[in-house]
Amino acid sequence: MHPNLDPELRQALARSPLTRVDYTRLSPDELRDLRELRRKASAPPLPGVQVQDRIVPGSGIRVRIYRPPSVTPDAPCLYWIHGGGMILGSPETDDARVSRYVAETGAVAVSVDYRLAPQHPHPTPVEDCYAGLVWTYKNAASLGIDASRLAVGGMSAGGGLAAGTALVARDRNGPPLIFQLLLCPMLDDRDATPSSAAFAEAITWPRAFNVFGWSALLGAAAGGPDTPIYAAPARAADLSGLPPAYLDVGELEVFRDECADYALRLVRSGVSVEFHLWPGAFHGFDDAPLPSTELVRRARAEQIAALLRAFGGRA
No. of H helices and E strands in the chain? Predict the structure, then answer.
C-alpha cells in the first residue's frame, strides 16, 4: 500500500481487502453479467426515501426518481449520473448515495440510466444524460421540482459525464443549471498526467482500467487530437459560462491531476469552485464497502454542505 494512505483507510483495508475484477480481460457477455451482478448486489436506498422509475418518452431512457420522506412543493433537484468507468453501473448502484443526498437536503433526485460503452460509444452516453436532463427540466412542475434550482452531479465516469452534460447545456442553451457536484470525475482521455503514471497499481481504479474505459468510449480515437469536449471535458478550451462547481478527488488516484487542473481552469474562467484534495484517499474511498472513517465522514459532510449552499438551504 502507498505510504501516504490514510491510516484509518489502511486499517480498514487490512481488515476487509477490496476485491478487484480485471475489466480489461472480460468478454462482452462477461461484462454484461458483471453489470447485472453489481446492480443486484447494490445497497438499497435509505428507509423512507421514495423511489420510482420512469421512462423518458421518445428516447426510451430510464430515470430513477428519489423523493425524501417529507417532500415539499417545488423542491430543488439533483440530476445524478452514476459512475462505472463508462462501462459499468446503473442508478441502482448509487441508490444508497443518492438517497442519502435526498434525505439530508430535502431535494428530489433524478438518476439517469444512460447506455454504456463499448456497446454504446460516444456520443450516446452524454446524449442520454442530456436527454434525461431536458426531460427533467420540462417536467419539473409534474415532478414537484423547482426548475430554477436544478443541479447536475456524478461520481467518477458519472462526474465526467456531469461535466460534459453541463457543457452541452451551456452550448445548446439548454436547461439552466445552478451547480455541478463533480466527485473524482473522469475528465481526460489523454492519460498524460503525473498521477496517471504514478497510480498504475492504484487500489480501486488503476491506470490500465482507465485506459480501457476511455478506449471503450472512444475507440481508436482515445488520446488522439480530435476527442470531443463533451466526451472528455478537460479538452474544452473555454470553460466560461458554466455553473458553480464542487469538485473533489483523492490524493492517491489516477484522476488527481486532471481534476486539480480542471478546478483551476474553471476558476480562471470566472466559475466559482470549491475544490477538495482528500489526503491519503484512493478513488471512490467514500463509497467503498469499508467501515466508515473520519475522512469518509468529512467527505460526505462536505458534499451535503455544498448541495445545501447551492440549493439555498434545506427544502
Answer: 10, 8
